[in-house]
Amino acid sequence: MQPIRRPSQLTLDLSAAHSHLSRPSMDSGYASSMASSVRLPADWMLSRMYETWKIADAAAQRLAVDQRALAECEAQLREARKKKEGEKKSGSTKRRPSLVPLLFRKRSSPALASTPEASTSSASSVDLLGTSVEELEARLAVLKSRVEATRSAAERLDTCFDELRRVLDDGRPVSWRSSHSSSSSSGSSYAESYRKARKTVAAREEAYLSSKSTTKALRRACLAVQSAHHHYMKAMDLLDVVCSPKKSKWEAIVGDEQSRQETYREAAKWAEKAQICFNESLRSLQPHWDLLKREEVEMCEELKETGLLQAVQLYNLMYGGKILAMGITQQVQIMMQKQDAVFQRLTSFAVWVQNCTQHCEAVERETRASRDAARRTLVALWVKADEDTETYSLAAPGENSHVFHQPAY
After folding, report:
1. Alpha helices for 99-184 (secondary structure H)
2. Half-sphere exposure (CA, 13 Å, Cβ side) for 359?
3. Where are the strands (E) in 218-363, listed by range?
4. CA dist list (Å): 56 to 45, 157, 263, 279, 357
5. Which residues contact 304 (CB under 8 A, 6 or more apart)?
6. What pLDDT digit, counting tens, does each position of 57-107 carry?
7. Averaged pLDDT score across all residues of the chain
8. What is the C-alpha to C-alpha distance for residues 210 and 354, in angstroms, rounded to an integer?
9. Rounded to an integer, what distance in angstroms lies between the CA atom of residue 36 and that of residue 34?
10. What residues have CB less than 8 Å from 61, skipping those under 6 apart?
11. How many of the other CB atoms lie within 10 Å of CB of 141?
């Protein structure tokens, strides 16, 4: 019968842990008092990896709460500053009281006696409001610092879990092999729970990566269509200067022709930029076209058919030198109406992409939280297996652990 190996004799693949231990960590600092040349026991290093993962996991769960608190504080600070500015403006623009009624009042008049108190209370309310703003500013600074620290720790969550899984899946300790091969009911339940947990983690990991990819594409599409909307509006504003229906005929006649042509040319350049950004938005949306409903698809097809180059067409109309079947004025009016219709459709499409992006971001957060919950279940099974079958656990070792007191052979 082969003797059972002691925990310190476990052969684990700890190559990933060495690089992790060389970096500063937010753990309890077990390694800070030990020289780098000391060969650490395998279970101690495993415990350290587990502790680091727990810190990153707790930070990831707390990050959303801290971000909500930060957003609320920023909103309160904006409101407090707005209110303070309003108090200052109302105090500076308040009319001075007339001295005529006061000349006919008695010195013992209650109204006259209460005037200093009213002014004092008004000044004290302004001071309290100023203190409130200062307190909110101090709180905001603390929350920003906390969010940055929490985000920094949460960003290590995937790396910490991958290191832990690489050690426990590729080089399982004796506890896992014994529980997996045991014919007892407890061993069978361990094995079945382990298989289910791994399958759940893999499925939710795939769902999270898919939602993450979709969100990334939608963010790019949203940024592109917003840029297209901005550029198209710039072109419209320039064209309003030279060919708006509200402009009088006299203004159109006396206008400098050279500056008019330059304005048309600049509007055409903005329209070309808008078209490029719109094309990029469609390219980003193409792999996720199933997200578009029938209304959005029709809107998108209309924009693709008409394009966003109405300003370019107007420039060619005015300075292209082509013979027209109808008057230029009538053609310009038709093109301006077409431009307004395109702008309305582009605005609606940009709003839809923005709302869809926000929805995808929410789905990504939900799938990430679901994946992290499945990971916690899997890690709990690893911990339970070691606690049930070994004299140590993945938890950080204490003073009575064999890490500090090596047993006699």
Report:
1. 100-103, 110-154, 157-170, 174-181
2. 8
3. none
4. 17, 5, 56, 40, 27
5. 282
6. 999 999 989 989 999 999 999 998 888 888 777 766 555 555 444 444 444
7. 74
8. 19
9. 6
10. 372
11. 11
Q: Backbone phi, then psi, for 81, in 5-degree steps?
A: -65, -40
Report whether 392 contacts 46 (CB < 8 A): no
Q: For residue 132, give both structure tokens.
A: 């409130």
Structure tokens at 301: 């097809």
- Give the tens place of pLDDT for each residue, 226-266: 999 999 999 999 998 887 655 555 555 555 677 888 999 99
Query: ∠ CA 347-353-354 to the nearest 5 degrees?
Result: 90
pLDDT lower than 50: segments of the chain: 1-40, 99-131, 171-183, 325, 391-393, 396-409
152 SS3 class: helix
Q: How far is CA 386 from CA 44, 98, 395, in A?
A: 13, 87, 10
pTM flag (> 0.70): no
The residue written with tokens 């707390």 in the block is: 62
| Joined tokens for residue 386 | 């070691």
Which amino acid type is present at position 63? L
Q: Is the dihedral of CA 217, 219, 220, 226 positive or negative?
A: positive
